[in-house]
Specification:
alpha+beta, 8-stranded antiparallel beta sheet, Pnp Oxidase, Chain A, globular
Amino acid sequence: MSDGPVTMTEAESSRLDWIGQHLDQYIRTDGKEGHIVDLTDIGGLDFTTCLLLRTTGRKSGQARTLPLIYGDTGGEVVVIASKGGADIHPAWYLNMLGGGPVSFQIGGQAFEATWREPEGAEHDEIWAFMQKLYPPYTDYQAGTKRKIPIVMLKATKAIDSFTA
């Protein structure tokens, strides 16, 4: 994958206002609102769980926070680096590859985390699980040449909830 500028997909740009509002609501209410959302308008489910992921910009060094759909399996939290099916990885994933700190918040609880990418049969099993949680992942994978990464997050230490 290129290390050039990361651009937005049409799916991302059409929901940019919603994403910003969702992030603001999640932080402002300490996860009381925004943790569970209805995504039926974009092909998702009416009960979709979202977390906040915080990475450090690999070039800027600044903290970056965004809401992502998540699943939970085997004591790990799962997020998908889909970028709406774009042919390039999302910035947050590239930031993780850059080695900076990673943290996440679910509801009102935040954690520092380690991460890994599952492989082989584990990858396939988790991909199928996540497709059930958010069916558009199937179309996203079909629309891109890249293998969309799966990221497994493991909480290592409780931290204060995220603030703006």
